[in-house]
Amino acid sequence: MTLQEILGIDAPIIQAPMAGVQGSALAAAVSDAGGLGSLPCALLGVDDMRRELAEIRAKTGGPFNVNFFCHAPPAPSAEREAAWRAALAPYFAEFGVDPEAIPAGPGRAPFGHEAADVLEEFRPPVVSFHFGLPSADLLARVRGWGAKVLSSATTVEEALWLEAHGADAVIAQGLEAGGHRGMFLSKNPSKDLSTQVGTFALVPQVARAVKVPVIAAGGIADARGIAAALALGAAGVQVGTAFLLCPEASTSAVHREALKSEAARVTAVTNLFTGRPARSIVNRIIRELGPLSAAAPAFPLATPAVTALRARAESRGSGDFSPPVGRAERGRMPGSAGGGSHPGVGRRPVIVAFFR
């Protein structure tokens, strides 16, 4: 079966779930246009999740994906948190952020039974995971309503593990990709980046090693990238950064300007935003503290302090602390994901029209 047949989509294109810069609007528009829209759920409480899922169901009859993290929550360390806030203290002072008002907490929750209870109400046809797969009992609940299961691999070893543990397709995440590195067999991802390779080196290795479909992710932003991925053995592609300028995305004005600027040509893998490696435009915090810092607390405990700085800085028109993106080719980003900015092109084929 093709990836389209497995997922019920018209084009072999998955919109990458991007927490913090999109919600149901982008997911629904992509699904309605013939691709697979994705809703990132790691930052959503159950009430928000329920509301967003209802919005998707109301806006499209197409299949969609919901995405969760599978990390093991770390034990908080008061000493490490104090060191992290000390490193950020000059920025707190400059931007008028009260560190005492910043909530202590994880910022992102792993998939659990409470989230599964909500999903069972909506029975999403695709559920994807990052950082491996959930426990067997949780995975059984997802499979109970017939959902297809996807997860990300950054190495051949991770791909084989995912296949052995029940993934219906593997997302081969190359080093160019935005968002968090999906590494889950490494005990210290920030120190094991030498294991990470580019998309077009990883895809053929994974395609040879596993029997399930392989989805290429990282640095793909047009038809040439899609054709290259398919020629190397991928059954489809996952695209994220290329959708960030769509009106359906919630990308901030400051972040949008950065994506359109020359600065977007220079990116780096950094752990400063959450405590785990992710690709970002090189901005002030990366230049001055990173890109990789031993001071950053374990994922996701670094998140609240940097999020507070980002919000204050962006309110002043500064992208000094704006979040990660991938290495999509500048100038190849679409208008509306649903087709509104493509005269003469209907909604269903707009995904294909953009990637010509």
Structure description:
It is a single chain. By secondary structure, the protein is of the alpha/beta class. The chain has 2 domains: 1-71 and 108-252 and 329-356, TIM Barrel, CATH 3.20.20.70; 74-107 and 254-321, no CATH class. Helices cover 35% and strands 13% of the residues. The chain contains 13 helices and 11 strands. It has helices spanning 3-7, 24-32, 46-59, 78-95, 113-122, 136-144, 156-164, 199-209, 223-231, 253-260, 284-289, 303-315, 350-354, and strands at residues 13-15, 37-40, 64-69, 126-130, 148-153, 169-173, 179-180, 214-217, 236-239, 267-270, 278-281. Strands 1-9-8-6-5-4-3-2 form an 8-stranded parallel sheet. A 3-stranded antiparallel sheet has the order 7-11-10, with no helix packed on it. The longest helix has 18 residues, at 78-95. It is globular and about 55 Å long. The two termini are 24 Å apart.
The total of helices stands at 13
Shape: globular
CATH homologous superfamily assignment of the largest domain:
Aldolase class I
| Physical arrangement of strands within the biggest beta sheet | 1-9-8-6-5-4-3-2
Largest sheet: 8 strands, parallel
CATH class of the largest domain: Alpha Beta
- Helical residue percent band: 25-40%
Query: What is the name of the CATH topology of the largest domain?
Result: TIM Barrel
